[in-house]
Amino acid sequence: MATTKVDPKLDENDIAKKAQNYQGLTSRQLIDAYRIMFASRRVDDREILLKRQQKVFFQISGAGHEALGVAAAFALRPSYDWFYPYYRDRALCLALGATPYEMLLGAVGAADDPNSGGRQMPSHWAYKRLNVVTQSSATGTQILQAVGCAEAGRYLARHPQAARKAEGDYRQFKDVQFQGDEITYVSLGDGTTSEGEFWEALNTASNRRLPVIFCVQDNQYAISVPVEVQTAGGNISRLVSGFPNFHFEEIDGTDPVVAYAAFKRAADHCRAGDGPAFVHAHVIRPYSHSLSDDERLYRPDAERRADAARDPVPRLQMFLLREGILDEEGIAKIEQEIEEQVQADADRALEAALPQPETIYNFVYSPDLDPSSAAFDTRPAFAVPEPAGDGKRPAAAQNKTSPNKTMADLINTTLRDEMRRDERVVIFGQDVADASREEYVKQKLVKGKGGVFKLTAGLQIEFGSDRVFNSPLAEANIVGRATGMATRGLKPVVEIQFFDYIWPAMMQLRDELPLIRWRSNNAFSAPLVIRVAIGGYLTGGAIYHSQCGESIFTHTPGLRVVFPSNALDAAGLLRTAIRCDDPVLFLEHKRLYRETYGRAPYPGAEYMVPFGKAQIVQPGTDLTVITYGAVVPRALQAAQKLEREHQVSVELVDLRSLNPFDWDAIAASVEKTNRALIAYEDSLSWGYGAEIAARIADQLFLHLDAPVKRIAATDTFVAYQPILENAILPQASDLFRAMKELAEF
Ligand SMILES: Cc1ncc(C[n+]2csc(CCOP(=O)(O)OP(=O)(O)O)c2C)c(N)n1
Ligand SMILES: [Mg+2]
Q1: Distance of CA 78 from the midpoint of ligand 2 (Å)
Q2: Choosing from 282, 545, 589, 646, which is the catalytic residue?
Q3: Is 646 a catalytic residue?
Q4: Which among 14, 128, 354, 483 has most CB atoms closer than 10 A?
Q5: pLDDT tier at 146 (50, 70, 90 boundaries)?
Q6: How many CB atoms neighbour CB 162 within 10 A?
């Protein structure tokens, strides 16, 4: 906002005298507050008008919340602290430095809308220059990300050299900045406190004493649902009061002076490193929830009138008059200036260039670093000695190949290599640390765990508890925090212990992580790696330790999905995943972790496999089998038997990565063999193979001598008793039969 001219009738002495009375806010700041609050309300009103004229397409207002937003912005530092606001924070954003024009660009969905370039609804704030991070419409998803953002700030303060730029990987494109005493602000409505992620966030912020200000803007309603339905006893402050390390405030959020004082105290607590703060502010919602809602359907007139009497905009106006800070003329002058400005801004925004349809694919993935490019295609260096664990460097280079290693070994070694190479890499998840009570390991009382499958064994011991640590048992907590950290430039490589338990993180995985870049029009990004133990064939794994379901994630634009079938590919793909500039879901088949099939020597610390490049496991001429993961060794066994017994030559294609996938390899093979079978471990219907089969039918129809076939699990979950498990999951014998039938068609 433009700076304010203080009423000439006031001399500086008066202003200074009065400053004390306003909790440290000067008269000048109070006038500024009024300007911003009035502008905020006027932008809402203007958008409402434009919506009625069908010139904009959605409106949600910040009305009634203005005093709180201005107070928070005045107590905090724009472009220094970090902000995860929600849609009612228009006044906060204006007070931080966003302009009405920028907001109106968002309303019309203009190409230059700084929030999203016309991709998001208005009031979904993102201002990179102000450290206002892109947010979604999903209520509450911002809260865990804010916690991760605060953790990143603290990590970078302790590891400042991690912020250094480096060439050749994601760091080249990620500027990192941090302040030692920065604060992360996150806000939400009263209804949103019912989301589980809210509680997960408070828990972690409390436990780790993070400098986060949680601001609950309690307007008593979540659309039509009143607060007593959301919150046991009707008051969120009472429920959260037991969290340790917090500073708590419960305030009248329609009073900017009261709110400013509360945010100041909250900020002092956070900047001192004492822990998080919780500001519970009672505000009003004088307009309905949004323009799609009519609150008269569920709020009686008397209640609405009582609310209106507390409206922060007229209230501050009265206050300024009463205190003699401005007279009527001064108020009128400010209001007229703003009216004219907003009108002019709206006219200009309506003329602004609109986004072009051909831009829709921009920023689904990084425009800077292509993980399927030649830069990620390196040769293994088998003669390089393997790095020793426990902090020890390898012995002198031996000039011979190291012995064969399992997939589990090489994943562990790759993590170790990359942590040595890049201090931004942090690892967390359930049980991934050697021991959270690190003194047990230091005193050599215990050896340490390092993952239920021991994939992260020894990493905490070598790199310390700052870089490798356990999370609470909460999957959204893992992915949400990691997303916040990655937004700030760290490279979290987190673990989901079993694919079967990835679902609590689904909101973060579907609506947040893959969308950070696209929805912010490339203003923000969150490249990170989520390692997930997946799959069955375990003999007793049963329903909840055997699931696949990769197609749910390949159906989510913005997320890379890889699924190696052997140790060497796992090492190469994991290194690519870590150096990549996109979020990657790295699926590790549990049955393959220690299998004899596909072991390999250590390939060196620079070995990478590009995404989207299939491996021809064996060449053939009669039919093509397209598969990945644990079906690869089973298909190989079946193909070898078919060759032996029936002289059928099978070309076996291991996709290795599922998004992107190697269409060229599939097409080249099917054009040669004219027959295609897609084999996968997940249940048959709507699975990953369905898409591949459809594409082959669509694009290679003229090359086909037989129908495109699929073989997969039954459309059930995986049962415990091995007789049932064998019947459910595709076996080598099933693959053999399907290949034979296809060859004979
Ligand atoms: C996860 C999720 N569920 C439902 C919705 C639909 N929705 C949008 S806003 C809202 C009410 C939010 O109420 P509250 O948190 O009190 O914020 P307020 O709008 O009152 O400021 C609902 C249910 C949503 N956006 N996200
Ligand atoms: Mg509410």
Answers
A1: 26
A2: 545
A3: no
A4: 483
A5: very high
A6: 21
Cβ(192) – ligand 1 distance below 6 Å? yes
The predicted pLDDT at position 11 comes to 59
Whether the per-residue pLDDT at 733 is higher than 90: the answer is yes
Give the pLDDT of residue 3.
42
Exposure on the CB side of residue 534, measured as CA atoms within 13 A = 24
Report yes or no on whether pTM surpasses 0.90. yes
Ligand 1 contacts CB of residue 477 (under 6 A): no
Task: Give the Å distance between the CA of 139 and the centre of ligand 1.
Answer: 5
Q: In what order do the strands lie in the sheet with 468-470?
A: 468-470, 425-429, 491-496, 529-534, 584-589, 560-562, 657-659
Q: What is the per-residue pLDDT for 391?
A: 52
Ligand 1 nearest atom to the CA of residue 223, by list position: 11
- The proportion of the chain whose per-residue pLDDT surpasses 90, expressed as a percent, equals 93
Residue 4 pLDDT > 80: no
Gap from CA of 695 to ligand 1 centroid (Å): 39
Closest residue by Cα to atom 7, ligand 1, is: 139
Give CA–CA dist 422/413, Å, rounded.
14
Whether 221 is in the pocket of ligand 1, judged by its Cβ within 6 Å, is yes
Q: Is the pLDDT assigned to residue 396 strictly greater than 50? A: no
Atom of ligand 1 nearest to the CA of 227: 16
Cα 220 to middle of ligand 2, angstroms: 5
Establish whether residue 121 lines the binding site of ligand 1, counting it when its CB lies within 6 angstroms of any ligand atom. no
Q: What is the pLDDT of residues 80-100, one digit of tens each?
A: 999 999 999 999 999 999 999
Confidence bin at 390 (pLDDT 50/70/90): low
* Contacts of 550-555 spanning 24+ positions with Cβ under 8 A: 550/587, 550/658, 550/682, 550/688, 551/682, 551/686, 551/687, 551/688, 551/690, 551/691, 553/509, 553/585, 553/659, 554/658, 554/659, 554/688, 554/691
